[in-house]
Specification:
This protein is mostly beta strands. It has one domain (56-388): YVTN repeat-like/Quinoprotein amine dehydrogenase (Methylamine Dehydrogenase, Chain H, 7 Propeller), CATH 2.130.10. Helix content is 9%, strand content 42%. Strands 4-8-9-10-11 form a five-stranded mixed beta sheet, with no helix packed on it. A four-stranded antiparallel beta sheet has the order 3-2-1-28. Strand 21 and strand 22 form a beta hairpin. The chain is globular. It comes from Stygiolobus caldivivus. Keywords: Membrane, Transmembrane, Transmembrane helix. InterPro entries: Host-pathogen_enzymatic-act, Quino_amine_DH_bsu, WD40/YVTN_repeat-like_dom_sf. This is YncE family protein. The chain crosses the membrane at residues 6-26.
Length: 399
């Protein structure tokens, strides 16, 4: 009998404990933790940070027209234009694609240097948009590019066909130094790109037909470090990250992008491009986590992780013929990457802004002209040019 009593009492105690626990749980605040859905590409900027939309673009077209563009307007993106350098559509010469300002900076200099792929560089007064001088760097058609120093006081020029690299003082418009990179037989080593180190102390130059990447003292032009690439790899474009710790090199010979430490140029990783993609020009995101590759033959941006050295995403851009991107850079404030789709002088091209917080297309600016490069400028500078220098926009402007 006592056994049954004790058994019944035990059941009652268990029931009372269960009821009490349930009551306590109901009275306690609920706390549910859910893991966010994983994404291949995490935002490169904080989603809570407001985007910086306080800038315009000064766009130079392939045949020498300058345009002021407001990429954020829903009604009037094209604000004004001027024929700055008149290049006939019947000749192969054109304003070339690379005119680099430091990442996240607005152009604010007195002079704009405009490269033409016949070896000529025109110096434009940025307040009047008139040609005030020109430099003859080479005399053959081919790659030519310009990079403005981090302090805005100098411009480096690389002309592939002549093998010349030189630095210009932007106050005096005098050549600081000039070096020519030729093989023992006199053939150009083809320096078709030049970039400044973020601290402004040295230049980074790929020598395509020497299969090397050289760093040069910025004030003397003397070679400091040489990265010897594999035979036939043909390094032809370079981009340092904003921290000055990593360099990306586009290789024409094997359709890949290599990554190296700065300033020592030690190997870190190599990324083969997806099938059919030709790497050409790229830029690092402000935090350095990704490298955005702008192919020569596709309207897309290939996203490369700089921690795994692998392609993690592809951002599809509007379809414009012929396919291929002219330039890519980071906008002031670091909210966007801007991409120039060169298009053609008959059908036009486009400026595209990619949000770095979502890694997707945010704004599109279709142009009836064929853009070569775009310089971010302040709204006040753009407004001054539109009000005092430029002609009013017209429908169907070409070239």
């Amino acid at each position: 009998m006592s056994y049954k009593v004790w058994l019944l009492a035990g059941f009652l105690i268990i029931i009372l404990i269960g009821v009490g626990a349930a009551y306590i749980m109901m009275r306690s605040p609920s706390s549910t933790t859910t893991s966010p859905a994983s994404s291949v590409v995490s935002p490169s900027t904080s989603p809570s940070s407001p985007a910086n939309n306080n800038f315009y673009f000064l766009v130079f077209t392939q045949k020498g027209i300058a345009q002021v563009i407001n990429p954020f307007s829903t009604s009037a993106q094209f604000l004004g234009f001027l024929h700055v350098v008149n290049i006939s559509i019947n000749v192969p010469q054109q304003v070339y694609y690379w005119d680099e300002v430091p990442a996240e900076q607005m152009f604010s200099g007195k002079y704009i240097l405009v490269p033409v792929n016949n070896g000529t560089v025109y110096v434009i007064d940025s307040s009047t948009m008139k040609v005030v001088q020109d430099f003859t760097v080479g005399d053959k058609a081919g790659f030519i590019g310009i990079a403005i120093s981090p302090n805005g006081q100098y411009a480096a020029i690389a002309d592939g066909p002549s093998g010349v690299v030189e630095v210009i003082n932007l106050s005096s418009l005098q050549v600081v130094w000039k070096e020519q990179f030729l093989s023992p037989t006199g053939r150009t080593y083809y320096p078709c790109d030049v970039r400044w180190a973020p601290d402004g102390q040295y230049l980074i130059v790929p020598l395509r037909f020497n299969n090397s990447v050289d760093t040069l003292n910025a004030m003397s032009g003397k070679v400091m470090t040489v990265l010897t690439a594999s035979p036939g790899s043909q390094p032809y474009m370079v981009s340092p990250n904003m921290q000055g710790t990593m360099l990306a090199v586009e290789y024409a010979g094997n359709n890949s992008v290599g990554f190296y430490s700065l300033p020592s140029l030690q190997y870190m990783g190599m990324v083969a491009m997806p099938s059919g993609v030709t790497p050409q020009r790229g830029t690092f995101t402000p935090d350095g986590k990704y490298y955005l590759e702008a192919p020569a033959n596709k309207n897309e941006v290939v996203v490369i992780s700089t921690s795994t050295y692998s392609v993690v995403n592809t951002i599809t851009l509007p379809s414009i013929s012929p396919a291929g991107l002219a330039e890519i850079g980071i906008t002031p404030g670091g909210s966007y990457a801007y991409v120039v789709i060169h298009g053609s002088v008959t059908s036009g091209g486009m400026i595209v802004l990619i949000s770095l917080s979502s890694m997707s297309v945010a704004y599109e600016v279709p142009l009836t002209t064929a853009p070569s490069f775009a310089l971010p400028i302040s709204v006040s500078t753009g407004s001054y040019l539109v009000d005092n220098v430029m002609l009013p926009p017209i429908t169907g402007l070409h070239c």
